[in-house]
Amino acid sequence: MPIRTLFPTQFYQNRISDAALIAELEASVRMLAQEDRAGIGWSREHGYRGYTSYASLNDLPLRDPAFGDLVRHLNRHVAAFAKACAFDLGGRRLKLDSLWVNVLQPGGTHSGHIHPHSVVSGTVYVAVPPGSGALKLEDPRLPMMMAAPARPDSFVYAEPEVGSVFLWESWLRHEVMPNAGTQDRISVSFNYRI
After folding, report:
1. d(CA 148, CA 43)
2. In the predicted model, what is the mean pLDDT of the chain?
3. What is the pLDDT of residues 99-141, one digit of tens each?
4. What is the full DSSP assignment across 146-164?
């Protein structure tokens, strides 16, 4: 049958297999969650169940060598994803715009959202205890389907493991499913731009 697939949505799933780096990141994140008073306050004020440095620290790769090492890994992953997406970057590379950590306690979640002003967004998973939840990705056509019948793949759930690297285009709506486990899920999220 003469059917073509048009406008595919790319999702990158790989891993960082450097166990020592993942352990360093976990120790650093746990320290930040104890010491970053501004981040703790922002998380409490905005109902974030756990801790995020999203609104408090914007220099983690300079502040901590583990995050600097992580960025070197991420740069390679993001370059591979940009190539797979066939971005016309005019010979340039995407560059890190922001990077923040997340400690999601049991029961915590993060509702559906996008990352404006960025090209590629992603998350690296540092601690993924059993039951701590998946990343839920939404079909970007969903708001325009109007009277279309339901499709079984309107939502895709990406199950992380320790060291997983997930990348997607920043306009792709996604959410963090509730942490139904008994321990914290720890991740590092980031945005890249032109």
Report:
1. 39
2. 96
3. 999 999 999 999 999 999 999 999 999 999 999 999 999 999 9
4. TTPPP-TTSEEEE---TTE
Q: At 67, which helix (H) or strand (E)?
A: helix 65-84
Angle, vertex CA 27, rays to CA 21 and CA 31, nearest 5: 140
| pLDDT in the model for residue 53 | 97
Task: Give the whole-angstrom CA distance, residue 88 versus residue 182.
Answer: 44
Buried b (16+ CB within 10 A) or exposed e, 49-64: bbbbbbebbeebbeeb
Alpha-carbon gap, residue 167 to 134, rounded angstroms: 14
Q: Residues with Cβ < 8 Å from 128, sequence gap 6 or more? A: 160, 161, 162, 164, 185
How confident is the model at residue 150, as a pLDDT? 85
**pLDDT value of position 61:** 96
pLDDT digits (tens, 9 = 90+) for 41-56: 999 999 999 999 999 9
Task: Please state whether the predicted TM-score (pTM) of the whole model is above 0.85.
Answer: yes
Paired sense of beta strands 155-158 and 95-104, if any: unpaired
CB atoms within 10 A of CB 111: 6
How far is residue 79's CA from residue 88's CA, in Å, rounded to a whole number? 12
Sign of CA dihedral 96, 189, 176, 79: positive
Determine the Cα angle at 4 with ends 170 and 8, to 5°: 10
